[in-house]
User: What shape does this take?
Amino acid sequence: MVNVKQLRRLFEAAQRDGDVEKFNSDFSEGLKSGALKFSDFSLRQLFEHFVPDGREMVNLYDPRSNGSSELRETASLVASSQFAKISGQVLYNEIMQAYEQEAYVFSGLIPARSTQFSGERIPGISKIGDEALVVEEGRPYPRAGVSPTYTDTPVTTKRGLIVGVTKEAIFFDRTGVLADRCSEVGESLATSKELRAIDCVVDENTTDHRYRYRDNTIATYGDNSGTHNWDNLEASNALVDWNDVDNAERLFSGMLDPETGLPILIQPKHLIVTRQNLYTARRIVNATEITVTTPGYATTGNPTETKTGNPIQGYTIVSTNFLASRMATDTTWYLGDLTKAFRYMENWPLTVVQAPANSEAEFSSDIVMQFKASERGAYATMDPRYMVKCTA
Assistant: This one.
């Protein structure tokens, strides 16, 4: 553990070597790796050691102080000091750690696609399919006909919060309070993104994310009817054993490419369940063998039992306590490939920006530094044929 005095000595050594940027880079890497932690530092001590006349300036934050006007003017410039850089890295790391928790499973599994647009039309060319024809000797090759196709994505939205470091936070050394506030900011933004990811997958609470193919907005799950010309809804298929997973898998064999009419090669890999079905899912996936019962001979009527290896293997079970709260019933479950069915259309990832020095907030609210955390994007259904929904 490195204390503030040791950190100051390392900084002074970097100054002598003319390599302050390397000091800042090493400090940032130490925070990311966990070698350094927010709890290792005192906000007040950082201020006192990295701001010129820092001890005297902390005392100026006491309303009873009668310090010099020169120090008071200097005190308003702390946001541009090395203290701002170090504390900024500490706050940034605390926000990011909370934002990137492994508990947010859906937002971690659905890939992000960078985009410069708030809603866009993604063009494509339909697959040729099985148009390769026999070519007789000496005859010209036939030309493959292709038709344009496109998918529209939803309008993106911006979400963010501001963390302020007040004079009181420094004077009373509220390091723990500030750490908690940064964690809350990261958790709030991550929770918002996770809930939007779940809403996109279950398709029950909003239609913004829905599949928009050739000017048709189509529900993610349903039977083969109208513009929903595929069947990825299996009713009366409660999750009990491997047979129910098999029922869901069979629907994938009927998924056809909308342009060619040929089957789509789909390998489902995510079994999505609420806490209600979590241990059932684990039992099904982790079983080493199953017992298959078949009817016996007509003369005896005795069934035949055959033990065989578990055919349901290789699935990743996806579950979170958030899931049931976004669904009408907690016995519904899903099978598919989240990485193929959905995308997060991202204008920018979580970004933390520090406000410039001498802001209005410093004078009006005694906020010495401010950090704004924001991200912008929207979840989109790219191809719902890679998912199946099963109801009990």
